[in-house]
Write a structure and sequence with these properties.
Blueprint (H helix, E strand, L loop, with lengths): L10 E3 L6 H13 L11 E8 L4 E5 L12 H12 L5 E10 L2 E2 L8 H14 L4 E4 L5 E5 L1 H4 L11
Parallel strand pairs: 4-6
Antiparallel strand pairs: 1-7, 2-3, 2-4, 4-5, 6-7
The protein binds tetrahydrodeoxyuridine.
Length: 159
């Protein structure tokens, strides 16, 4: 038998350590929580997508009385960005979550389905997507969606 381990590297930053472009991206993700439609969970999530031409698209989670019909902020934002500018690569995403009157101090991480969508966009444009997960105490940075979803199913798998 042989075994193999896959490691995920996470960089941890304070807000002040980030450059202006990423600070701005995180601010857009934080602002987007205001637009969250989350009457069932009360958990408001904002996501902001940065394109390689500098454009930012932001969006929030949208829930539904039929629970599985709702969608996470990351996928609403990603599908919005890709449908507005289908030829432009995504370079980064920022995510912020707000509940019970405050942003979380420790970041949340995208769900499995969102990771799959992030990987698809990464493969589609052939560029790793920088992921910034906002918390008031610390910000997690993951260099590439495949770090969050190792050994994943991609278009090559279909061949
Ligand atoms: N949610 C997101 O929008 N993004 C995440 O990364 C985790 C969860 C949403 C889905 C649902 O509307 C609410 O948060 C509670 O799960």
């Amino acid at each position: 038998m042989k075994s193999q381990s896959i490691e995920t590297k996470i960089n941890i930053y304070t807000f002040d350590e980030l450059n202006l472009e990423i600070k701005n991206l995180i601010s857009r993700a934080k602002s987007a929580v205001i637009t969250s439609y989350s009457p069932y969970s009360g958990f408001k999530v904002g996501a902001a997508i940065l394109l390689e031409n500098g454009t930012i698209f932001s969006a929030s989670n949208q829930e539904n009385a039929a629970y599985p019909s709702g969608l996470c902020a990351e996928r609403v934002a990603m599908f919005y960005a890709n449908s507005q500018q289908p030829q432009t690569a995504v370079t980064a995403i920022a995510v912020a979550a707000y509940t019970k009157g405050d942003f979380l101090d420790t970041p949340i991480s995208p769900c499995g389905a969102c990771r799959q969508v992030l990987v698809e966009t990464e493969v589609r444009f052939g560029k790793p997507i920088d992921i910034y997960l906002f918390g008031t105490k610390e910000i997690f940075h993951i260099k590439g969606a495949q770090q969050l979803l190792p050994f994943c199913f991609v278009k090559e798998s279909l061949k």
